[in-house]
């Protein structure tokens, strides 16, 4: 393992325009479980799998049940950035990391101080009235009883990409631009199974591809450096 950390240090030292592409595994060390990892508890408490509840059609059909799951399983108000978030913010401040592309919606990268964060799946911290588009913060969503409503009477929807919904085009273009211009791409805490987000990494043309993930990914064979460990633990050693 020490050899791999040494190699990672070497790669980071000679990189000037890195991009980090991350997923749920980046936040598990902050106590936010991957909502896709359906456990027995879900089955007891919810009649449908998370993929069904967190879908556009389900949200339209049953916002009450959607918000019950959303507030319970998607929002972790007390979560704090871990070593992965902190180290990435440091690398950006040093001018080595150009952008973070994340599939997470928790806002922990910004909380750690990162500025250029492309949130492919949106953020729980942004919420808009579906009628008048007024902005609401996360506190308002948490404090509202059941389905959060705007002062105009409209339903407030989180700026989170639900299943069946498309990704924001500007975010995709931005992500492609940064990834295609990167000299090093670090993929961390994601098994690269969620499309179209996972497809973005094929735009990488740079020198070093690093994969840091607990379980195997489809990119492992192309990686110059593969570390099967927790991302916070690994980046914390840099
Ligand atoms: Zn409104």
TrEMBL record:
Enzyme Commission number(s) from the entry: 2.3.1.286
Residues binding NAD(+): 24, 28, 35-36, 103, 105-106, 121, 190-191, 213, 231
Localization of this protein: Cytoplasm
Reactions this protein catalyses: N(6)-acetyl-L-lysyl-[protein] + NAD(+) + H2O = 2''-O-acetyl-ADP-D-ribose + nicotinamide + L-lysyl-[protein]
Active site: 121 (proton acceptor)
Cofactor binding note of this UniProt entry: Binds 1 zinc ion per subunit.
Residues in coiled coil: none
Name of a matching Pfam family: SIR2
Role summary: NAD-dependent protein deacetylase which modulates the activities of several enzymes which are inactive in their acetylated form.
Family listed: Belongs to the sirtuin family. Class U subfamily.
Cross-referenced NCBIfam families: PRK00481.1-1, PRK00481.1-3
Record's protein name: NAD-dependent protein deacetylase
Species of origin: Coprococcus ammoniilyticus
